[in-house]
């Protein structure tokens, strides 16, 4: 009996162990299947446009988790196509509009406003986020693709803020190494001082931080390229011969000399083409001589070396007008230049012509031009707190 019992018990144990082994294998197979499905789903998501992914976030919690993952968001952003965004205030209908050119559907984003009485303008754009300002110095980030917005604390120094007031501009930038978005704000120093002070706000933080000052007054809102914000400066209405640089990771300043040329005359501006800092230089006089614009590109490996890339003939618009191009952007293989508040021109590097030609009829409202990439970078607070 004992031997029979032992045999029965042994048999049961063997059957039981087989069942347990089968369950483990089944679970492992199921987990492998889930992982395979997850990997396939991630690859599909990588190929979808940002506006589609913004809707996919609302399907279920697992999709929301995946589409809010820091690594996924920035990998998807790398595949985005740079576009051209025009921002304008339609004051007659009390609304702000941002139109993305070369959108297959001609889509127009209507941007929300912090308050109906405020007139919004765009300081700059970075990673699909717009850095918005108003006449009182408030700062807000907006992702027009997802519709999310984030109001930042009012800067400590607004200096009677206006988008046209001297030295009161903001620039949104991104630190590739730390994956942090930061806003730099310059404001006038003490009365009679030739310095401009700077404060920085890290998105997800709580307060602005003083990071130092620069000599001179910034003459533009700054150009953000690869984690650094660049500013042209002016000393008492005289253009300087250098570019001030703010490294957003270290929050330290540096200085670059402008490339040697016969003259600048104050008629130059900064831009970004092909992911590099560029200097736009306008030559010519008011006595009928042809006017041209040269685009010099900063070499990546040497911040003192510039390469001449483009030479463009500017249209003769008004004899009495000596203008500086407001911006130059790459879009759809062409260079787009805003000359006046309502005019957009285009230059095709692949054509035989060096002429800059008007790209579209004059706008009804003044607008500003910005590079733009549709993205799903979230703006809810816990996303930035890791």
Task: Please name the defining characteristics of this protein.
386 residues, alpha+beta, 2 domains, 5-stranded antiparallel sheet, 5 helices, F-box domain-containing protein
Can you put this structure into words, describing what you see?
This protein has helices at residues 2-47, 50-56, 61-67, 70-78, 381-384; strands spanning 83-90, 95-101, 108-111, 121-126, 129-133, 139-143, 148-151, 170-175, 180-188, 195-202, 209-215, 217-218, 223-225, 228-235, 238-247, 252-257, 268-273, 276-283, 292-298, 306-313, 327-331, 334-340, 343-347, 357-358, 367-372. It has 386 residues and is an alpha+beta fold. It has two domains: 2-72, no CATH class; 73-384, Neuraminidase (6 Propeller). The strands form six sheets. Strands 12, 13, 14, 15 and 16 form a five-stranded antiparallel β-sheet that branches. A four-stranded antiparallel β-sheet has the order 3-2-1-25, with no helix packed on it. Strands 4-5-6-7 form a four-stranded antiparallel β-sheet, with no helix packed on it. It is globular, with a radius of gyration of 27 Å. The termini are far apart. Mean pLDDT is 75; it is low at 159-166, 262-266 and 318-322. Residues 1-29 are annotated as: Disordered.
Average the pLDDT over all residues and give the rounded result: 75
The helix content, as a percent range, equals 10-25%
**Would you count the extended β strands for me?**
25
Query: What name is given to the CATH topology of the largest domain?
Result: Neuraminidase
Count the domains: 2
Number of helices: 5
Shape: globular
Radius of gyration based on Cα positions: 27 Å
- What is the CATH class name of the largest domain? Mainly Beta
| Structural class by SSE content | alpha+beta
| Unreliable sequence segments | 159-166, 262-266, 318-322
Name of the CATH homologous superfamily of the largest domain: Kelch-type beta propeller
Percentage of residues in DSSP E strands: 35-45%
Main sheet?
5 strands, antiparallel
What is the element string, with H for helices and E for strands?
HHHHEEEEEEEEEEEEEEEEEEEEEEEEEH
């Amino acid at each position: 009996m004992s031997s029979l019992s032992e045999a029965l018990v042994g048999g049961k144990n063997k059957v039981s162990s087989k069942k347990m082994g089968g369950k483990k294998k089944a679970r492992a197979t199921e987990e492998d299947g889930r992982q395979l499905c997850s990997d396939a789903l991630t690859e599909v998501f990588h190929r979808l446009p940002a506006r589609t992914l913004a809707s996919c976030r609302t399907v279920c919690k697992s999709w929301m988790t995946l589409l809010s993952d820091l690594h996924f968001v920035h990998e998807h952003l790398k595949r985005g196509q740079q576009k051209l965004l025009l921002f304008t205030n339609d004051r007659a209908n009390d609304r702000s509009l941002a139109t993305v050119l070369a959108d297959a559907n001609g889509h127009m984003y209507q941007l929300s406003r912090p308050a109906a009485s405020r007139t919004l303008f765009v300081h700059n754009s970075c990673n699909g986020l717009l850095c918005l300002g108003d006449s009182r110095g408030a700062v807000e980030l907006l992702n027009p693709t997802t519709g999310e917005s984030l109001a930042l604390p009012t800067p400590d120094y607004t200096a009677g803020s206006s988008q046209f007031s001297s030295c009161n501009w903001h620039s949104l930038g991104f630190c590739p190494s730390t994956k942090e978005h930061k806003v730099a704000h310059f404001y006038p120093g003490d009365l009679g001082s030739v310095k401009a002070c700077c404060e920085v706000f890290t998105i997800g933080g709580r307060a602005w931080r003083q990071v130092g000052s620069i000599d001179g007054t910034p003459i533009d809102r700054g150009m953000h390229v690869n984690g650094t914000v660049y500013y042209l400066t002016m000393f008492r209405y005289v253009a300087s011969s250098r570019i001030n640089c703010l490294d957003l990771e270290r929050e330290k300043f540096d200085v670059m000399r402008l490339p040697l040329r016969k003259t600048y005359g104050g008629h130059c501006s900064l831009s970004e083409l092909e992911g590099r800092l560029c200097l736009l230089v306008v030559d010519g006089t008011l006595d009928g001589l042809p006017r041209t614009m040269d685009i010099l590109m900063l070499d990546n490996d040497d911040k003192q070396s510039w390469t001449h890339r483009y030479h463009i003939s500017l249209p003769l618009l008004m004899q009495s007008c000596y203008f500086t191009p407001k911006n130059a952007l790459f879009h759809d293989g062409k260079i787009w230049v805003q000359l006046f508040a309502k005019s957009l021109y285009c230059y095709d590097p692949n054509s035989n012509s060096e002429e800059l030609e008007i790209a579209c009829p004059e706008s009804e409202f003044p607008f500003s031009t910005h590079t733009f990439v549709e993205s799903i970078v979230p703006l809810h607070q816990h996303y930035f707190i890791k």
